[in-house]
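Work package 3, deliverable 3.1, input record:
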Amino acid sequence: MTIAIIKYNAGNTASVTNALLRLGITPQITDDPAEIRAASHVIFPGVGHALPAMAYLRERGLDQVIRSLTQPFLGICLGLQLLCEASEEGETACVGIFKSRVRRFPPGQKVPHMGWNTVPLAGTGLGEGTPRFYFLHAYRADVGADTVAECDYGGAFSAVMRKGNFLAAQFHPEKSGKAGAALLRRFVTS
Amino acid sequence: MLAKRIIPCLDVRHGRVVKGVQFEGLRDTGDPVALATRYVEEGADELVLLDVVATQEARAAFADVVAQVARALSIPFTVGGGIGSIETARALITAGADKVSVNSAALRRPGLITELSDEFGAQAIVCAIDAEQMPKGWHVRTISGTTATGREAVAWAQEAAHRGAGEILLTSITHDGVKQGFAVDLVRQVSTTVPVPVIASGGAGTVQHFADVFLAGQADAALAASMFHFGEIAIGDLKRQLQRQGIEVRLED
């Protein structure tokens, strides 16, 4: 098993690396397409702004690399948003795996959506019950055909999305205590 | 529904937790990693680590503590104390901190908030505000509360959010250490007029104080130090009692 974490300008790779190390797994942090393709699992974290992140991925052809992957893939936070069709943040087209658009939270809510919110896991293949996970984001993906779990904050948005080998979480499993560790363990053993 | 957060605060001096810490079963109560881990097990939702020395030499030791805590902790944490530049913030974020908190340096030069927010994103920038109750409202103090700034607290909180802070850590100097409850009126004024989450700090002494600041004060999170350090109440017990009052909290298991 080789877990590759995609290295780019918006990837907060340290906290995901620490979370995997706590599970006894040493990941490979890389932006080399060959290493990414060769990995058994790929993690795509993300913290920051969609526009410069997409520009960086395109410059290096990493958006094409991501589209071509067939192994289990996990996007986290901005990583989920970048897998959607387009984002309102900087009005950028994204990688286009999931058929949803990313928009800012509607007015009337405090932004960022920060803290522990509930996500029903039934039917996601990621566990049972309705655990709380840690969210920290100002934009969110619309609920669509690829949404497998919703969260509510001023309306429903996509908490977990899945299409084929592509799985993504809007929350941070690497910062979500036991519930997050269980989800990561399930992903790396998938 | 989003849970109200309970946040213990650890004051760190030269790599050690200061303030007496009385915890059964903790062999080294001055070890920040041991204490942080204990709080996570008890159910803390986030942690705040403050470098109370924040001199150049202390900063290196603090960054080392931050890296150790980041390796051990499975929940987010904020670090603060003497952060006045992108470089200082970057060192702590690279070490593994999720958010950095700015206070005096932002009062000296408010543009710092925008610079940090543009560099790391608003979600990573906390503006800490130390407020004192005066006959005509709440005033902001700086340099560990020693110096008046002439700024009004609610206006400064609004400006900080406008400049790019993603969260406000609001401490009432008037209430801090007295254990007679949070500054509920101030917290409500800030929380209802600022578009970002607000952490209330200063004055926690009982479960009811937390309930009041969440229900009447509309705080998004509440921070305490000595109440948890001295084991006056365990975080899990606090949360279960808050839940009984209808307050949304995170309970594991």
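The mean pLDDT of chain A is 96.
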